[in-house]
Design brief:
Elements: E1 7-13, E2 46-51, H1 58-62, E3 65-67, E4 87-92, E5 95-99, E6 105-109, E7 115-119, E8 150-157, E9 163-166, H2 173-180, E10 198-203, E11 214-219, E12 246-252, H3 259-271, H4 273-277, E13 279-285, H5 292-305, E14 314-316, H6 325-337, H7 344-350, E15 365-370, E16 373-377, H8 379-386, H9 393-405, H10 408-414, E17 422-425, E18 428-431
Parallel strand pairs: 1-3, 2-4, 9-11, 9-12, 12-13, 13-14, 16-17
Antiparallel strand pairs: 1-8, 2-7, 5-6, 5-8, 10-11, 15-16, 17-18
The structure holds guanosine-5'-triphosphate and magnesium ion (MG).
């Protein structure tokens, strides 16, 4: 069984912050010591890291829930709780993270070692030491730790390769990639040998010692007519070449049917117009087993039917014997070097909306639910409420203080709130005090 997976969903949760402590100094000759409750530690973040050594999302298919470590509670003698460890998760380069509900892009991890905090850990609660002031010498409360962020996402893989090889089954795509790169895919004389995409790194110094350049090639399962309707292995794998700069279109000389070229292009077009617009380098493969006449005829037919193409643009190769591969590699190299992104897709990709889990401290929103119930929404006030022990009087006083300071009380009054009305902040109730 293959362990390839290029689409799945998963859920990430940051660690909870530790609770702040309520504690007072107890020293031999100090009758009433001051507060010495330490802060809780922060919860760990869940961090995704793009890693070029991985090419599957299988780990997120088999396991669905990932959680970072909680922060430890604060202690006596102003002991701060330890921060929870971050959870580092490796994903393949080319992983796109999308919101599970809206399917909007959150981040596109297309560079090796790119990191992204997908779920932030909760803040540690402040210990009672923090709340000491000249008028409030002995605070009897501390903050609870904040809950870690929770997010459910779709993960989708679009492999990142400079060159994507396309062609009918058995055209010799896998043979070629195994000859020119470090990839070692399965090769056989039956169609659909390749069931999952393979990536290979072409090291140009193997072709010319002076060259210090390498590029990535993707070999995808063969395409057939009707692929866009799900025939064969379907066109699902085509998205793995959607980021390629250049397509290498491999044709099989032994089939001696130049219509293959048009059939494949038709499938590309039906899948995605942008894919069909990509520059293609054509290579006729298996030249070792056909005669010169077959090759000449094939070339002539293509030249007469494909617009803007000349004989020099068509490579004649043998993936088995190595014929013509040197020239092909250098042409691919030139094409990569001279590649200029021109279409809209590339622009759109570079301005992907990035999900940033930070708090908007001042903003809030109030809705009147009925004549004596109001709902207050806002990052900071909700965070504060979540970190407050509702049974602790002093803690609640602090919430009232913030309602006033942030202007929420004033706004509630404007909206007609009266003493005793119920206010919900992040599903937690508090009684209105004008
Ligand atoms: N004589 C000859 N045979 C070749 C050449 N390239 C590939 N073959 C043979 O063609 C058959 C198919 O090769 P693969 O590399 O598996 O073809 P593929 O395009 O990857 O096929 P799928 O994975 O099924 O899409 C194998 O038997 C290869 O040995 C070549 O240049 N010359
Ligand atoms: Mg193959």
């Amino acid at each position: 069984m293959s362990n390839f997976c290029d689409k799945t969903w998963t859920e990430f949760t940051g660690g909870n912050g530790g609770n702040g402590a309520v504690s007072f100094r107890r020293e031999k000759y100090v009758a009433k010591g001051g507060p010495d409750g330490g802060n809780g530690g922060n919860g760990g973040n869940v961090i995704l890291i793009a890693d070029e050594n991985i090419n599957t999302l299988i780990d997120f298919h088999t396991k669905k829930f990932f959680r970072a470590k909680d922060g430890a509670n604060g202690g006596r003698k102003n002991m701060t709780g330890a921060n929870g460890d971050d959870l580092l998760l490796k994903v393949p380069v080319g992983t796109i993270v999308k919101n599970f509900e809206t399917n909007e892009n959150i981040v596109d991890l297309k560079n090796n070692n790119q990191e992204f905090i997908i779920a932030k850990g909760g803040k540690g609660g402040l210990g009672n030491t923090h709340f000491k002031s000249s008028i409030h010498q002995a605070p009897q409360f501390a903050e609870n730790g904040e809950q870690g962020q929770n997010i459910k996402v779709n993960l989708e893989l679009e492999l990142v390769a400079e060159i994507g090889i396309i062609g009918f089954p058995s055209a010799g795509k896998s043979t070629l990639i195994s000859k020119i790169s470090n990839a070692r895919p399965k090769i056989a004389d039956y169609p659909f040998t390749t069931l999952i995409p393979n990536l290979g790194v072409v090291d140009m110094s193997a072709f010319d010692k002076k060259m210090n350049f390498s590029f990535v090639v993707a070999d995808i399962p063969g395409l057939i007519e009707g692929a866009h309707e799900g025939k064969g292995l379907g066109h699902d794998f085509l998205r793995h070449v959607s980021r390629a700069k250049i397509l290498l279109h491999l044709l099989d000389l032994t089939r001696n049917d130049h219509d293959d070229y048009f059939k494949i292009n038709k499938e590309l077009k039906l899948h995605n117009e942008e894919l069909a617009q990509k520059r293609q380098i054509i290579a006729l493969n298996k030249a070792d087993v056909v005669d010169d006449e077959t090759i000449t005829n094939y070339k002539n037919k293509l030249c007469s039917e494909v617009p803007n193409i000349s004989e020099a643009d068509i490579h004649v190769i043998s993936a088995v014997t190595g014929l013509g591969l040197n020239k092909l590699i250098f042409d691919l190299y030139d094409a990569i070097i001279n590649f200029k992104p021109s279409n809209k897709k590339t622009q759109k990709n570079s301005e992907i909306h990035v999900f940033q889990p930070h708090l908007n401290k001042k903003k809030f929103e109030i809705k009147k639910q009925n004549h004596n119930t109001f709902i207050v929404k806002g990052d900071r006030i909700e965070q504060l409420m979540n970190m407050t022990d509702l049974n602790n009087e002093e803690g609640m006083e602090r919430v009232y203080h913030f309602l006033n300071k942030m202007g929420i009380k004033k706004e509630l009054k404007n909206m007609g709130a009266k003493a005793g009305d119920q206010i919900f902040i992040s599903t937690k109730p508090i009684i209105f005090r004008p």
